[in-house]
Amino acid sequence: MSDTPNVNASSEEKSYSELHRPSHEFASRSDYLDHELQIMKPRRWRLNLPGRDFRFEWEDLVPALAGTIGITVMYSAVMTAWAAGLTERWDHVNLGADFIIENVRVEMLIPAFLFCILSSGFINPRANLGGNHGPMIPLIGAIALAGAHPLALAILLGIFGLALSFVKGGSRLVNLTGKGVAGGLLVYLGTMGAISQITSLVTWSEGLQAKHSLESGLGFVAFAILLINIGLYSYLARIGKRWLAIPLCSLAAIGIALLLGAGIDLKFTTAPGLPNLNPVYWWGSTETGWQLGLPTLEHFVASLPFALLAVAMWSPDFLGHRIFQELNYPEKTERVLMDVDDTMTTCSVRQIVGTAVGGGNITSSWGTYMIPAAIAKRPIPAGAILLGSLCIVVAIVGYPMDVAMWRPVMSIALLVGVFLPLLEAGLLMVRKNEDSQSAGICIFASIVVNPVFGWATTMLLDNNGLIGDKDRPKSLSIADRLFIPLAAFLVCTVAMSAVGMLPGIPAWL
């Protein structure tokens, strides 16, 4: 029987520091971590201090490392897509590798300090960190070619996000998403993401021979990396240590790749240094930074549908991350669950500030941090401070960025840290027959268009009893049952139609 005491009414009057007990007093490390989650009382938009309000544990290093690897990969992908699209769109713009590296460093310095260390670490530990909007990465080329401006997009996205968080729209949409819809969404995102990373790893492995003019191919490297990591991930899951998956599996991928001769593809080119931190350099003229100058009214009009779409995609993204906490945290830990509306506020402000100082990231809840943190049963603040510090170190040192962006590390980290846990969580949520029906329709609709369309369509059908639990509409108001889901569906559909994301319908804006 666990030694973990229940958090009863009398403990409500005591502070976290008074309720804290050393780990050696518990039967297991898991019991100690459960107790820490149950006694925490985060101060919302007030100063939280180590020792008084939270503690650092060695488990916090795992999500911090995972988040650093993940965000380095994601930021690099975002800046590469922006550079390619804007260079193709504008004759006077020529953004190369130097621009990409310097911009990634900007994003890893200022936002890491302001919104990882200060905001989520000390000011509001219930707001998850503002990371990267992964589903938007494939659209960045289209955004650039449509004539959008990164700064205009950031301002609009931030305004829409702040407006939605002000009316508590994010949490309401999350609460209106049934288990079947949420489970289907997670299964789809996990499956598609896993397939994408496996394909990328295999393509990289098969291309080594031609890239480096080798006499014999190295196509078997990908299979060896995947095979070893399947065994390692399974073992970690078996012993209840999946939160170690990203660092251990990434190290295994590096070791196997080097042992089998793929190390010839690992180049250390990012030297130590600091980026230009002057916003005028990035946006002040058409000769420096982004080479675009400040945005005009035309840029705001072109950015509008993409900003609407990005904010519409926040709710299902936030939902997936909060679900991981609910699945892995013990009972009576509602106070440490991420607050969706506070996270939306943080992401909105981070979007505007991060881009204003020169960055190009499109922000959302930081999944490569939250998912490992939830599995490790750790709250937000301590890991956020470590993550922000690691990002700053990596940005200044430079060379770790080359390792994080190496294909074996990138693909394995995303596989075991994000997509496999998403798939597993989705399957856990789909247990009842009516939930599996909603999940199936959500996956089907997501395949037809994308996961945002799948979420909005299935939420509308599910809340009206047309699929899933037929008794669900009886517990909902007319607004929750019809008006809000219909509004979400219309906003998503119109925004996607405007930018040409609906099959067979050309972009009309």
From TrEMBL:
Residues 1-10 have a biased composition (Polar residues). The chain crosses the membrane at residues 61-85, 106-124, 136-164, 185-205, 217-236, 243-264, 300-319, 380-399, 405-429, 441-461, 481-502. It holds the Pfam family DUF3360. Residues 1-21 are annotated as: Disordered. The keyword Membrane applies. Residues 11-21 have a biased composition (Basic and acidic residues). Keywords: Membrane, Transmembrane, Transmembrane helix. The keyword Transmembrane helix applies. This is Membrane protein. It comes from Paraferrimonas sedimenticola.
